[in-house]
């Protein structure tokens, strides 16, 4: 595994490679984001190294996953347990922050706190999409106060998993950006009524032959229906391993007019935006 300095060099080399491939998020006509940080240069997911790589690449958004420790700290971790991503074992919710910090995500990378992630993006234009994995255990007031103390309320997007969560966060901040991880299309209205102003759309919901979306924007397509209601449409997409298939999927999402694409292959999404949008 690379050392910490070599990870930073890898991030910078990745940014150069992405630029050479036409990856310029600032010139894309839609927002481009990375999933669990930018880990394409071998950084561990949800690590500060992965966040640094995303910042170096100039991404608009970085999605990170949040859970709470036994002593109430908010940390970056996707799974309920640490076995897959660290050298330890056990559930995040049963560990203190000190115990979790002693674990290794890879090459000495510790598990970050949300506060550390917010500090890292402070001087950038990148925003954090916070996926509340155990949202019922994360105290909304604590999270909002943490962001407010760092003047970062406008730098975060709260990713809620229920309409009830949306209402709780909206009550704390009328100007907060809230994304609804809606489990079904039928749940969109409840999330929107709760205060979500962005709706997550899986590609399969809008690219399926029966979706009514076709290959170009249409009044009957879910993307345009939501946008007419002043709801942004963000696609969170796991890209196919095959580069041609992944590029074709991103081309279709861009052509449909989604507002943002957050993916593990952001360079391909940005290239699609350039091909079909402004260069």
Which tags fit this structure?
279 residues; alpha/beta; 8-stranded parallel β-barrel; TIM Barrel
Structure description:
The chain has helices at residues 4-20, 48-56, 97-101, 114-121, 140-149, 163-172, 188-194, 203-207, 222-228, 243-256, 266-276, and strands spanning 31-35, 61-68, 74-76, 127-132, 156-160, 177-180, 198-201, 232-237, 260-263. With 279 residues, the protein is an alpha/beta fold. It has one domain (4-12, 27-276): TIM Barrel (Alpha-Beta Barrel). Helix 6 links the parallel strand 5 and strand 6 (177-180). Helix 2 (48-56) runs parallel beside helix 4 (114-121) and helix 6 packs parallel to helix 7. The longest helix has 17 residues, at 4-20.
Quick summary of this structure?
The protein is an alpha/beta fold.
Question: Secondary-structure blueprint of this entry?
Answer:
Elements lengths: L3 H17 L10 E5 L12 H9 L4 E8 L5 E3 L20 H5 L12 H8 L5 E6 L7 H10 L6 E5 L2 H10 L4 E4 L7 H7 L3 E4 L1 H5 L14 H7 L3 E6 L5 H14 L3 E4 L2 H11 L3
Parallel strand pairs: 1-2, 1-9, 2-4, 4-5, 5-6, 6-7, 7-8, 8-9
Antiparallel strand pairs: 2-3
Helix pairs in contact: 1-2, 2-4, 6-7, 10-11
């Amino acid at each position: 595994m690379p050392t910490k300095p070599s990870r930073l060099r890898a991030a910078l080399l990745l940014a150069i490679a992405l630029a050479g491939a036409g990856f310029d998020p600032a010139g894309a006509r839609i927002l481009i984001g990375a999933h669990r940080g930018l880990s394409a240069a071998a950084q561990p997911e949800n690590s500060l190294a992965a966040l640094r790589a995303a910042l170096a690449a100039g991404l608009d958004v970085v999605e990170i996953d949040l859970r709470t420790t036994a002593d109430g700290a908010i940390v970056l971790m996707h799974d309920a347990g640490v076995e897959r991503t660290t050298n330890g074992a056990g559930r995040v919710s049963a560990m203190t922050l000190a115990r979790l910090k002693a674990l290794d995500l890879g090459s000495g990378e510790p598990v970050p706190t949300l506060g550390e992630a917010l500090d890292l993006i402070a001087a950038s234009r990148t925003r954090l999409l916070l996926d509340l994995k155990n949202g019922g255990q994360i105290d909304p007031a604590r999270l909002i106060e943490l962001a407010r103390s760092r003047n970062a309320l406008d730098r975060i997007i709260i990713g809620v998993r229920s309409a009830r969560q949306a209402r709780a966060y909206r009550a704390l901040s009328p100007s907060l950006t809230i994304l609804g991880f809606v489990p079904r299309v039928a749940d969109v209205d409840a999330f929107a009524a709760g205060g979500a102003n962005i709706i997550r759309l899986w590609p399969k919901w809008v690219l399926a032959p029966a979706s009514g979306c076709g290959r170009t924007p249409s009044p009957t397509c879910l993307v345009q229906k939501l946008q007419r209601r002043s709801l942004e449409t963000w696609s969170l997409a796991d890209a196919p391993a095959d580069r041609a298939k992944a590029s074709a999927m991103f081309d279709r999402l861009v052509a449909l007019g989604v507002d943002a694409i957050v993916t593990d292959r952001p360079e391909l999404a940005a290239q699609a935006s350039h091909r079909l949008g402004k260069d």
